[in-house]
Amino acid sequence: MWLKILTGVWIIALAIGGGWYALHGEPSVREQTSIGNARPVVDRAIVDVVAAVGGGPVVAVSGFDRVKSCKITPVRSGAEFHRGVDLYTSPGSESAILHMIASGLPARYHAHAGSSAKLTLDADAGDFVAVDGTVPAPGLIRIEADTGCRQDRGATVGESSPPAGSLWAAALAPVLGALGQPAVSYATVADLACPSGGSLRSVQASLPPGSAPASLAITLRTLAATPAAASRTTFAFRSGAVDVVTAANPTSHAVTVTATTRCRA
């Protein structure tokens, strides 16, 4: 008799506990969460990185992009997304900037920068979002916040064009004028909430394949006396409160011009 009563009480307790966890409990593994759950964490990580880097490097933030499809279980598919920020700086300063980011991120990131011989950054943004930094080329630091493999829900990414006469359109116009052709399309690739209000926003103008000049450094040289980067395929500079990065695809010779405004202190 008592055994039956105890068994019944145990079953009820399990049901109540399970119901409470479903409503209030934290996920214990990444696969229990969705891309939609991870996106605000990814976005905040990029905002925090840009704040930590200070006003030195010129920045360009990418879209929230699908990296690949993946398997959550052998019979259940998922997806992996990431957002990145490219930092353009003087060659030789990469290690100092990575350490500046590591020390400037909130303590909860447990950020660590590698030695001068290993130019990397590792951090944990929470909710199973990894933040990694690399140096793909001298003077270029790339920081990416990655969702890992999750349920492919809530990943819709909206795009919009900058209004005519906006700060971003005004920053893009001289570059497009120097390149001698209008953009094929405009898109707001990042519009990330700032802690103090407003947003960190990147607007991108895209030019078609074959539009790149022989050298961006030569074609755009009159736009900045001391650009953060100037090469055949890259030209990065600051125009007032806007960071402007022009990049040519070495294969298709298409060009993208990204104008980014940062969070206000």
Short description:
By secondary structure, the protein is α+β, with helices and mostly antiparallel strands.
Layout of secondary structure:
Layout: H1 2-24, H2 35-53, E1 58-61, E2 65-73, E3 76-88, H3 94-104, E4 112-113, E5 121-126, E6 129-137, E7 140-146, H4 167-179, E8 185-193, E9 199-207, H5 216-219, E10 229-230, E11 234-239, E12 242-248, E13 255-261
Antiparallel strand pairs: 1-3, 2-3, 3-7, 4-5, 5-6, 6-7, 8-9, 9-13, 10-11, 11-12, 12-13
Helix pairs in contact: 2-3
What would you say this structure looks like, in words?
This protein has 5 helices and 13 strands. The longest helix is centred in the N-terminal third of the chain and has 23 residues, at 2-24. The chain is globular, with a radius of gyration of 22 Å. Strands 1, 2, 3, 4, 5, 6 and 7 form a 7-stranded antiparallel sheet that branches. Strands 8-9-13-12-11-10 form a 6-stranded antiparallel sheet, sandwiched between helices. α2 (35-53) packs across α3. It starts with a helix and ends with a strand. It has helices at residues 2-24, 35-53, 94-104, 167-179, 216-219; strands spanning 58-61, 65-73, 76-88, 112-113, 121-126, 129-137, 140-146, 185-193, 199-207, 229-230, 234-239, 242-248, 255-261. By secondary structure, it is α+β, with helices and mostly antiparallel strands. Residues 6-11 and 13-26 have low confidence and may be disordered.
